[in-house]
């Protein structure tokens, strides 16, 4: 495959037409109803099996092991919901939406609020400070001016124990159950049906854990049943979620931006994320979700097609893709380096402002590559998300991959 000059193709750097032919794009975005429903059935079956194991009359250590496994299954079901939330799991928008609702019950997530938090915010403004709020690093000035409790919390977040509490505090409680935040309240009527669905059916699922445990092991106190059968799995799920999104957007070579003039699609979706190779093969959904560049560049790719799509993206961008194997040593290097971010120098620092990594060199593909846009088209994360959908234009009908053109901000 031969890369085409930007003037020949008229494509934009990082866009799917820049690294996929039309035929390749059609292939990697094709959804399979059979495969999707098979994955859904298998993972929900394992979820209920591990739930039973967590509350069955077994040795406590074995119950805890089942509880941890149940937490991992909550995470795997969530990943199905993540795909279906992009309408990228099975054919048909309506079926995808109902699958999202069903698999979001164990993690107690409101489908419509997740769409705002993830699809309409994180994906539109990836790694743009003031818009994207997924593990956004503080600057030294912001950190110094923060209250003492806020500074202490930030130190915990960006340490080895941070993923234990980050998602509970920053996402699940304030943003993903009831429309409490200003951003959600602006459209509260559209979120209310899914909020009631989560409260009624998700709450019923939690209550059923207590009922099942009391029936299987009547001599055990209810608090112990709920601790092992619900709290431990839910804590494991929250940890895995927080750890995953930390690794996807924090790395000594991954930049963040605060100036919209130097941020564009390529900056956020190709330079602004990391590919993490996991050391195990028995949980393929977890492995798929860490192939993050292709997902960000084209969210309509099902997880079960991401391996192929990510390989094509890496072929196109090579060393520009941040990629590393997950090991405890590598994780330690990342969280030790990624404390604060110097947005002017594009450099990670510690909490005292001392550099922990080299400045990130972005080049002309990012800086000043995007035409200026009216400020009204970009809204801060605290504002209501009433964003007009972009006008869709046909992809160029070329048979060669589209690469290395200039970038632009995502359409708002």
How do the strands and helices of this protein lay out in sequence?
Layout: H1 6-9, H2 16-19, H3 22-28, H4 33-55, H5 60-85, H6 93-103, H7 111-122, H8 140-145, H9 148-157, H10 162-175, H11 182-185, H12 188-216, H13 222-249, H14 265-269, E1 274-277, H15 284-289, H16 292-297, H17 306-317, E2 322-325, H18 328-337, E3 340-342, E4 347-349
Parallel strand pairs: 1-2
Antiparallel strand pairs: 3-4
Helix pairs in contact: 4-5, 4-12, 4-13, 5-6, 5-13, 9-10, 10-13, 12-13
If you had to describe this structure to a student in words, what would you say it looks like?
With 412 residues, the chain is mainly α. The chain has one domain. Helices cover 53% and strands 3% of the residues. The strands form 2 sheets. A two-stranded parallel ribbon has the order 1-2. A two-stranded antiparallel ribbon has the order 3-4. A hairpin with a 4-residue loop joins β3 (340-342) and β4. The longest helix is centred in the middle third of the chain and has 29 residues, at 188-216. The chain is globular.
